[in-house]
Amino acid sequence: MQARLSLVDSSIKSMHQTLFYEAIHRDRHSRYFYLWTLVSTRKFPYWLPRPKVHSLKIYLFPLKMEIIEEESMSPDQLAVNQRFLEACRALDIEQIQKLVRDEGADAWFQEPETGKGPLHLVVEGAHVAEAEEKDAAVEKADECLSWLMGNGAVWNQMDREYRTPACRAREYGLAKLYANCIDAGVRAELLLAHLNRKQQTSAGARNEAYLNSKLTWTEPTDGAKTLLDDENNGVMMSWEKDIMKRSAEVLVPTPGEGSVLNIGFGLGIVDTYLQERRPKRHVIVEAHPDVIAEMKAQGWDKKPGVEIVEGRWQDVAGQLAEQEVFDSVYYDAFGEYYEDLREFFDEAVGLLSPDGILSFFHGLGADNQTFYDVYTKLVMLELYDFGLDTEWEELYIDMPDEEWEGTKRRYWALETASSVSHSIFKFVHQLSKDSALTKLLLAKPTPSEA
Asked: Span of the secretion signal (predicted)?
């Protein structure tokens, strides 16, 4: 299981009270979510060596929460932190600022019993406000959230029920507060991706284990098929067929026309639907030897207009781009991470015709609505940076529990499990100077804001 080291955005503002690190496991097909936070209470510039850690907390989501180690806190510090949490619940921005700036309250502090942190309590304070005061309370809470997230509060901190502040805001129907938390998550991920890009593990090392694994085809129910790796992780399942069918309609809008490239065959669901629409050229890139053997056993190498390219897309994309561009490209590669997907976006620009369409199955962070929404917005902004305009289409699908029998874990476990977002990208020739990415970064709260 792999994790990516990330640096929370609020810590980068040079000399600040608190530094947070987080390691988050990123994989569409693994249902564990790790979050660990190292917290230092000494002031220092972020580029200096890390000082002694004040406390280490490790959360294992969604199975359980464990505090692995926590040094004792002085009674005076504990009292300040308790007053700080009370001010957050009361939406008292002036008291919040005073306690953090002047009295050294820890912006990461959580109630021991409930695990609620300052952001949770701000959201809760808006939720419990009387009806006639609700609008004003939401505005005050929004101001508190922005200031706190710019001064060390952890945007994705979890309480003892494994809910982030954004999760609570969504449960309470507080759309403005939910959006504020999601934007904070996107800002953090954009910054962290930029900082970590030069230190990433190569894609070959990341998916080597999958490519060397033995795959199994099963039929958990009548008419349903599942492709499993050697750890019983679902590589592809029949419940995805409605997504794949709609994807094929988007990718080949006019039957009998166009060229299409698909990255990752799996069960061949999307390729089957693509063949029904009879594109003039249909190229399939597949790297796993077991899948390639199954494709040939089914006669895919003999279908008119179908070309099978054996190998990893990272190794063949350049050669394909030199031969011919495609009218549409689809991506659903197993055993890869968001970093690989983003790398593919860069390659896709060279593979697409000027009016081409890029689509992929969006299962990023699909075990938690908050993280899913962060990735949804992150993908849109990253693609805009590549010159791609984004449209999202939501599909309602049937996902029988029986189909998950025999799998190690569900790779789709949102609260609204019947809803899947389908993404469509169309190439645009020019970018606005006032891009959405620029707006988002400019909107970032800073520690100096009152």
From this structure: none
Closest C-alpha among 364, 318, 339 to residue 205: 339
Across all residues in the chain, what is the average pLDDT?
76
Which of 198, 217, 238 is at the close of a domain?
A: 198
CB 261 within 8 A of CB 330: yes
Q: Which of 198, 224, 244 is the last residue of a domain?
A: 198
* Count of structural domains, the chain: 2
Select the more confidently predicted residue: 364 or 92: 92
Peptide bond into 165 cis (omega under 30): no
| Reported pTM | 0.72
Task: Verify that 391 and 256 share a domain, yes or no.
Answer: yes
- Please give the Cα distance from 440 to 226 (Å, whole number): 40
**CA 285: distance to chain centroid?**
25
Note whether residue 130 is domain-resident.
yes
Q: CA dist 173 to 124, 126, 170, 177, 291, Å? A: 11, 11, 5, 9, 45
Give the domain range for residue 167: 4-198
Strands (E) in 189-305, as ranges, are 216-218, 226-228, 234-237, 259-263, 281-286
DSSP H or E segment with residue 321 = helix 313-323
State the pLDDT at residue 154: 92
Residues 6 or more apart from 219 whose CB is under 8 A from it? 225, 226
Q: How many secondary structure helices (H) and strands (E) does the chain include?
A: 14, 15
Looking at residue 151, its pLDDT comes to: 93
